[in-house]
Amino acid sequence: MADQQPDKTTAPAADVADLQPAVTSPDTPKETTETTEPQPEDKTETTTAQPAIETTATQPAAPDTPAEADKAPAEVQQPPQAEEEKPVAEQPEQPAYLAKNPALAQFFERLPAIDSNDAPTVNVLIKFLRANEGNVKLAEEQLTKALKWRKEMNPSALAESTSYSATKFGGLGYLTVYKEANGAETVVTWNIYGGVKDINTTFGDMDEFVKWRVALMELAVKELKMVEATSVIDYDGEDPYQMIQVHDYLNVSFLRLNPAIKAATKKTIEVFTTAYPELLREKFFVNVPAIMGWMFAAMKVFLSKNTTRKFHPISNGANLAREFPSLKEQFPKVYGGSAPALQEGARTVNLTQEEAAPAAPEQSKEQAKENKEEAAQEESKAESAPEQPKTDPAVTAKEAPAADAK
């Protein structure tokens, strides 16, 4: 709440004190002014001789010394001199991309600490602005959330120095970079959900699953080389700093979707939507049944229209390479290309193979021989024991009451 401003009509305390009436001490006698009635005029002239008083006007003395003469001109007030006009500092010329896009210029005005001349930084802010369809306020709010999330999560460390269980995530995520004839690169991330061996093992710990997905995403973002940008992308033009995502659902049943999968998927979408805006060029869902339409409906709740229009379901994964004619031969054979399988040539996150439980130590030959001899002796004793007479259960049951009676 802003501090209340003082009333401009209220005088300072000192002024108020000056306006108060004077207070007289009770010990000081009050001055009295007596009124004298006029006396009748005395017609008799009385002349009183007064001593002659010579009145002389005092004139300023002329300076007698040089020092005094020097002081004299200083006492004369000089006319005020006109102030010299200071040159106005020239304002730096606004970059063309800010002049062309008022919303982007306003975005930088709200973030004065951010350099508007750094191309990689400008490109990032353009992505946040695009993701919010030009709404500066929403873009700023999303940027704030993304920066807070990165500070808490430290995704760079998740990709570089963190290892993940091969049992849980091995064979489920890959990264490939395909080169065009003109030298341009296409970054593709692969999520092979059909390779999940145990749903509870992979999706049971939602936070761990999200960290694994973030690690794979960070590897892909680095391959986009956004930090090396030397020019600003056109807000309404093509963005070269985007990737392709492929989700393979071969052998995945959508009739009974495990709650753990739903929770992990929802959380992943929320994180990626906030922290990685406008990094997706296109997303392909391959080997999916028609029933998967519900997933696209669910995603539209969390994603912008600019994002959902990039989704492409393909029922047969072997047709994927057709979508990229110039890169077709570089795609794995299973997806219609000529390259080896992802397991052989693609990158992935750091995986750790869990050590199997240690096997029981092998017995020495002497110990095994002793155990064998002991087992043979026990078997021999059992064979030499006298045979016990067989008892008819029916007879025993009949005789039991009699025995109890005794």
Describe the protein.
It is a peripheral membrane protein. There is one protein chain. This protein is an alpha/beta fold and about 400 residues long. Among the domains are: about 95-155; about 165-350, CRAL-TRIO lipid binding domain (Phosphatidylinositol Transfer Protein Sec14p, 3-Layer(aba) Sandwich). Helices cover about 40% and strands about 10% of the residues. The chain has 16 helices and seven strands. It has helices at about 15-20, 65-75, 95-100, 100-110, 120-130, 135-155, 155-160, 165-170, 200-205, 205-225, 260-275, 295-300, 305-310, 340-345, 365-385, 395-405; strands at about 165, 175-180, 185-190, 245-250, 280-285, 310-315, 350. The strands form two sheets. Strands 2-3-4-5-6 form a five-stranded mixed beta sheet. A two-stranded parallel ribbon has the order 1-7. α11 (about 260-275) links the parallel β4 (about 245-250) and β5 (about 280-285). α4 packs across α6 and α5 crosses α6.
